[in-house]
Amino acid sequence: MLNEEHVISRTITQLTESLEQLPPTVHAQIIAVDDDSTDHNLLLLTQSSSRFLQILHRTGNQRAGKGAVLNTAVQYIHKTLALKSDPQRTIVGVLDADAFMNTADLTRVLAHFEQEPQLAMIQTSVNIYNQPNWLTKMLRPIMGVWLIALGLMSLCVLLKSHHLYHVQVRQLLIYSAVVLGLMFTATNLDSWLYGFKVAPAQVETLYSLATGTDVKSHGTHSPALQATVSHELRVAPTLTQAYPRITRTMARTLQTNLKQIKPQLGSFVNEKMQGFIREDYGYDWSLYNLSHHPGLLNRHWFYLAPILITSATVYWQAMLVIALFSVLMGLGLLWHQHYLNHYLLMAALLLDGFTLSALLLEVQGRYHIILYLPILMLMTCGIAGAKLWRRQIKQS
Fold first, then answer.
1. Reduced to 3 states, what is the DSSP secondary structure of residue 134?
2. What is the per-residue pLDDT for 150?
3. Contact 353, 149 (CB under 8 A)
4. Mean pLDDT on 10-29
């Protein structure tokens, strides 16, 4: 671990509590390897009262990366634990400083090794501290959406009649000022939303573009790219040195991805759109959250999966149909001076902007919740327009 003072005490405490609840036949140990941290990481480790903790300190500011740190721990295990324990019954687990596993997770891992003696390795999910809050799990602050909306609005302004031109220009200038303000404060805004300091806008944007154009992952989350970034962050002595290297790597990856996408652009965009509007994300997130509470997660959740996912899909498709009706009605109203025109225009701009900008970057089903805002606006306008049309028919 390197400079993890903000999470290390919490991680050691939580892991100690989980190990305390394991059967007495399990002789557990926590081996924490400090890679010559410059913060209070090592001091906090020495202040820990965990009876499982063994601290290793790599000196000389070597910082050769995660592999070297793991080798240090493995060498220590060979020289100490292997002398008094059976290597065939020794399980080595690897956790990052901001990760943890509860007792139920550890018990399931032990059970697998007990039931399958020939098993050599297991890869399992872990919990992570400093996770984004509920808002950032659902929404991604994407500046591209504002730029696309700005471009579409500019086009609408140019098409407006001359006598309204000065009013529209004033509105456009106000909108432009807001966009510029958001662009300059995007990094700090993201840091506040996520709860930790995020990378500069250039690094974040290139990483999102490289991920969103990855053919192998269909534009969704790419473990390979994430591993590349994590490696650069761990190897570089400082973030100032890591960010330029990540930027160059992501720029090269983006260029390669664009060449691969070109001959299959249509199918790639179609796959991304399907991934973006998937309605099973809610069910998946429910399982993920319930997995932290084994007593609440039972077989009924799995039996109900087809019903829940189908219901959510039908509900989403019904909303899209009503929104489409509203758009068609809005096209008809363009030929008339109607108060609904402005609301329909804004909703359509939001829907276009959110969709187009999302497809440029990494997509996941959970991100399309932002589309509910413009779709609900369109539905409201459509229902209002239908009521007015019905009233006019009765009056005539």
1. helix
2. 59
3. yes
4. 86
Q: What is the pLDDT of residues 131-171, one digit of tens each?
A: 544 444 444 545 455 556 656 666 666 665 555 556 667 76
pTM of the full predicted structure?
0.54
Phi and psi at 78, nearest 5°, equal -65, -35
How many Å apart are CA 375 and CA 112, to the nearest integer?
47
Q: What are phi and psi of 199, to 5 degrees?
A: -70, 160
Residue by residue, DSSP assigns 23-79 as -TT----EEEEE---SSSHHHHHHT---TTEEEEE--TT----HHHHHHHHHHHHHH
Are 168 and 157 in contact, with CB atoms under 8 Å apart? Answer: yes
Half-sphere exposure for 253 (CA within 13 Å, toward CB): 25
What is the C-alpha separation between 182 and 83, in angstroms, rounded?
Answer: 60
Q: HSE-up of 286 (CA within 13 Å, CB side)?
A: 15
377: how many CB neighbours lie within 10 A of its CB? 19
What pLDDT is stored for residue 139 in this prediction?
44
Instruction: For residues 203 and 209, give the distance between their C-alpha atoms in angstroms, rounded to a whole number.
Output: 10
Q: How far apart (Å, rounded) are the C-alpha atoms in residues 393 and 391?
A: 5
Q: Which residues contact 125 (CB under 8 A, 6 or more apart)?
A: none
Coil/strand/helix, residue 98: coil
DSSP for residue 195:
T
Q: Give me the residue label for tokens 């997130």.
A: 285
282: tokens are 């809610």
